[in-house]
Amino acid sequence: APDVDGAKIEAHLEEFARIAEDNGGNRAHGTAGYKASLDYVKAKLDAAGYTTRIHQFTSGGRTGFNLIADLPGRGDPNQVVMLGAHLDSVDEGPGINDNASGSAGVLEVALAYAASGAKGDKAIRFGWWGAEEDGLVGSKAYVNSLSAAEKAKVTAYLNFDMIGSPNPGYFVYNDDAKGGFITQAFQEGFAAERIESEGVGLRGRSDHASFMAAGIPSGGTATLSLAATMSQAQAQRWGGEAGQPFDPCYHKDCDTLDNISAAALDTHTDVAAYAAWKLTGVKAPVEP
Length: 288
Ligand code: PHE
Ligand code: ZN
Ligand code: ZN
Ligand code: ZN
Description:
Layout: H1 6-22, H2 32-47, E1 51-59, E2 62-70, E3 76-86, H3 96-116, E4 122-129, H4 137-145, H5 148-153, E5 154-160, E6 171-173, H6 180-192, E7 198-200, H7 208-212, E8 218-222, H8 232-238, H9 262-280
Parallel strand pairs: 3-4, 3-5, 5-8, 6-7
Antiparallel strand pairs: 1-2, 2-4, 6-8
The structure holds phenylalanine and zinc ion (ZN) (3 copies).
C-alpha cells in the first residue's frame, strides 16, 4: 500500500472546518452543514472514477443521507471489502476529530486506491454514514437495506471514528470475533509504522456495530479507548500525556482543527490503506 499523503488529509479537514463555519458551526444530521460535507466528498469521488450513490433514510423526523461509493473494474464484485466513517458531527461543534478525521482519512484512502490502479481479488467499497450521533442510524439503515445475498458479499467492514485525537492512542478494535483477520491486518499495518498498537473493546459504540449485527466481519482503528484518560503505560508507549483525556474536546465546540494530531491522523490513515490493499488482495500495487 502507498504511504497516504498527510497534507491531502489535512486539506479535507480544512474543508470540513470551513463547511461547519459557513453553516452555523456544525455538520450535524439534518443540517445544511451535513449536506455540504456529503457534496464535498461525493464530488471528489465522482472525479476519481467512483460510482456513487446517496442512500436516504429518516431519523428524528429529518431526512438523512449515506454516501456509498464503488470502484468499477477492480476485483470480484461478489466479494467486497468495505471501509467507512460517519460524516455527521454533534450539534455542539464542527466535529473535526469526531469525525471529520475518519471521513477525511477514508476519503484519501479511496482517492489513493483509485489513482494507484490497484486491482485486488476482491472489490472495494466505501461508505460515509449519516446520523451516527443519533444512534448509528445511517449505517443501520444501509445494512438493513441490503438483501441477504448483498450482505453475504461484504466480506469485511472497516470503521474509522476519531482517528486524529490530540493525545492519540493507537487502538485496534477487538469487539468482533469474526473480525480477527481484520484486527491482524491492522496490527501488521501499525507494526510496519513501528507502532505498538493495543486492542480495544468499544462495546459496539460506532458504525461497525451495524455490520456486526448482520454477521459481517468488522473491525477498525481509533485514537481513543472508552477510558477517561491515557494510562501511564500507554503514554510511555506512544509518547503521550498520562492522566489526560485522549480528546479533551469530545462532543464540544472546541473540536476544531486545533483538536487534531496530524501525525496520528496520517498514521491511522496509512494503516487503513495497508488493510485495504491487503484485504482486497492487491498483489502488486502501483504506487500513486
Ligand atoms: N462513536 C462515538 C461517537 O461518535 C465515539 C467512539 C469513537 C466510539 C470511536 C468508538 C470508537 O461519539
Ligand atoms: Zn502517510
Ligand atoms: Zn460522537
Ligand atoms: Zn464518532
